[in-house]
UniProtKB/TrEMBL annotation, chain A:
Residues 15-204 form the ABC transmembrane type-1 domain. GO terms for molecular function: transmembrane transporter activity. It is found in: Cell membrane. Keywords: Amino-acid transport, Cell membrane, Membrane, Transmembrane, Transmembrane helix, Transport. It is a multi-pass membrane protein. This is Glutamate transport system permease protein. GO terms for cellular component: ATP-binding cassette (ABC) transporter complex. Pfam families: BPD_transp_1 (PF00528). The keyword GTP-binding does not apply. GO terms for biological process: amino acid transport. It comes from Okibacterium fritillariae. Belongs to the binding-protein-dependent transport system permease family. HisMQ subfamily. The chain crosses the membrane at residues 20-41, 53-72, 84-101, 185-203. InterPro entries: AA_ABC_transptr_permease_3TM, ArtM/GltK/GlnP/TcyL/YhdX-like, MetI-like, MetI-like_sf.
UniProtKB/TrEMBL annotation, chain B:
SUPFAM superfamilies: MetI-like. CDD domains: TM_PBP2 (cd06261). It is a multi-pass membrane protein. This is Glutamate transport system permease protein. GO terms for molecular function: transmembrane transporter activity. It comes from Okibacterium fritillariae.
Length: 215, 284
């Protein structure tokens, strides 16, 4: 207990940064993932190709490697200095976006064929079929797996600790310099993560029940 | 090209799609061209920065690092499959004193970030007097605990996805509980879940890269080391390109196996499934 309360400032700062990474990466991943997901089901062949290559390439790259690229490679390109936090957010967003895209795509596949056929039968074009009929239903089917993607994102933010971002993963390093027992510190960090993941899981279950599609 | 979502395009749609296609290609080409231009502008393609990767000694070291990565992967993969099997059996047990601890174990290790888990093993245990924690052991143990818990849920989903009649007919011909599980349920469950299991193994392979952060001398560790060699102009970008390619090829090969298995399974009939392709969201 003492380890936590004597160093509350470090813990609060660390987890605040974790939350910042999580929040911004989640938003950008949702936006980018929706675009890529839409590209993967679109009628335009080059769009599908680009989406497929992007998803397969990035999904098979370790996130650590992606962060490595951005944290060590980007500063060498002579582009404006944006800081390690932004670079970590970019890496996290690019990585998570592929999972968002795949989740959306499989969500679209759960919508019965008849829904799309009916929409087209009454003359809706692709854009309206998607926005009025398919996506609202796909969205509901997507909520539970999407929450799992975000839970994974929350856990993945810790990797930024290895690349000069002072977040939850670096609390150990800071506090070991203050002479705190490392194991105690790490167990507190782990406990906070377990609680955070638990809250997200509860939210997931709640939304799952609330938005269950009646078929 | 026709799909459920849209009709076979008519003349106008074809024209519009073509325009959109060209725009997409142009945008992607522009982005790539900009990146390559920046790389070129900052001298990343200079021979000096790549020279390092032509030395035989470097090749030897890269090979060793590759072996280290594959070794961690192999140990973690086998151990997490075993742990996953044990945990899933525990979780499906009818004995509460087996079921609850197994459930708690699974939920606990799925919720802790893998990196924190490795930190606990590598930095947290030695001060307690636990000796012999090498980076290798920390990486393999961390990967095993996490992926074993995830795989346990995969196995369980596989067994629960089977029609109830499978177990019932087993009991009807007089098999015991353990026999029903071993002879009837598990073989079918593993077969149905094989694509998911292999994609989880891809996650194991990807996550070996976390070893870099606890000084395990695998590919990424070597990438950083060579990337900061001053006399070769700190070729961090060439290094990342070289080592990144190795990683991506390894993972793509394994993911390709998963795809192949999935296609073969789908073409076969006679496997009992209740909910085909049940989504298990594996570790992202």
């Amino acid at each position: 207990m003492d380890t936590l309360f004597n160093n509350l400032d470090i813990f609060v700062d660390g987890f605040r940064m974790t939350f910042v990474l999580f929040f911004f990466a989640a938003i950008f991943a949702l936006i980018l993932g929706t675009i890529v997901g839409a590209m993967r089901v679109s009628p335009v062949t080059p769009m599908r190709a680009v989406g497929t290559v992007y998803v397969n390439l990035v999904r098979n790259t370790p996130l650590t490697l992606l962060m490595f690229f951005f944290a060590f490679g980007y500063p060498k390109l002579g582009l404006p200095d944006v800081g390690y936090t932004t670079l970590a957010i970019i890496a996290l967003s690019l990585y998570t976006a592929t999972y968002v895209a795949e989740t959306l795509r499989s969500g679209i596949n759960t919508v019965p064929v008849g829904q799309a056929e009916a929409a087209r039968a009454i003359g809706l074009p692709f854009g309206q079929t998607m926005s009025l009929v398919i996506l609202p239903q796909a969205f509901r089917a997507t909520v539970p797996p999407m929450m799992s993607v975000f839970i994974a994102l929350l856990k993945n933010t810790t990797i930024a600790a290895g690349f000069s971002v002072a977040e939850a993963g670096t609390i150990r390093q800071v506090l070991s310099e203050r002479g705190e027992p490392q194991l105690t510190v790490l167990l507190w960090v782990a406990l906070i993560f377990i609680l955070a993941v638990g809250v997200l899981s509860l939210l997931q279950r709640y939304l799952e029940n609330k938005w269950r599609v009646a078929r | 090209m026709s799909s459920v979502l849209y009709d076979t395009p008519g003349p106008r749609a074809i024209r519009r799609n073509r325009t959109l296609g060209v725009v997409t290609v142009l945008v992607v080409a522009a982005v790539l061209a900009f990146v390559v231009y920046r790389l070129f502008e900052t001298g990343q393609f200079e021979a000096k920065k790549w020279e390092l990767f032509t030395l035989p000694l470097v090749h030897q070291n890269m090979f060793n690092a590759l072996l280290n990565t594959l070794q961690a992967f192999a140990y973690a993969a086998v151990l997490s499959l075993i742990l996953g099997l044990v945990l899933s059996l525990g979780r499906m047990s009818v004995h509460k004193w087996v079921k609850y601890p197994a459930t708690a174990f699974i939920e606990l290790f799925r919720a802790v970030p893998l990196l924190i888990l490795m930190f606990i093993l590598y930095y947290g245990l030695p001060p307690l007097g636990v000796e012999g924690i090498t980076p290798f052991i920390a990486v393999v143990t961390g990967l095993t605990l996490y992926n074993g818990s995830v795989l346990a849920e995969v196995f369980r989903a596989g067994v629960e996805g089977l029609p109830i009649g499978q177990a019932e007919s087993g009991y009807a011909i007089g098999l015991r509980k353990s026999q029903v599980m071993r002879i009837i349920l598990l073989p079918q469950a593993v077969r149905n879940m094989l694509p998911v299991i292999i994609s989880q193994l891809v996650v194991v392979l990807k996550d070996t890269a976390l070893g870099f952060l606890i000084t395990y001398q695998e590919l990424l560790f070597l990438a950083k080391f060579y990337g900061s060699q001053g006399q070769y102009g700190s070729p961090i970008i060439p290094s990342a390109i070289v080592f990144g390619t190795i990683y991506i090829l390894l993972c793509l090969a394994l993911a390709g196996v998963a795809k192949l298995v999935e296609l073969r399974l789908r073409s076969k009939v006679g496997v009992a499934t209740k909910a085909a392709g049940q989504e298990i969201d594996a570790g992202v």
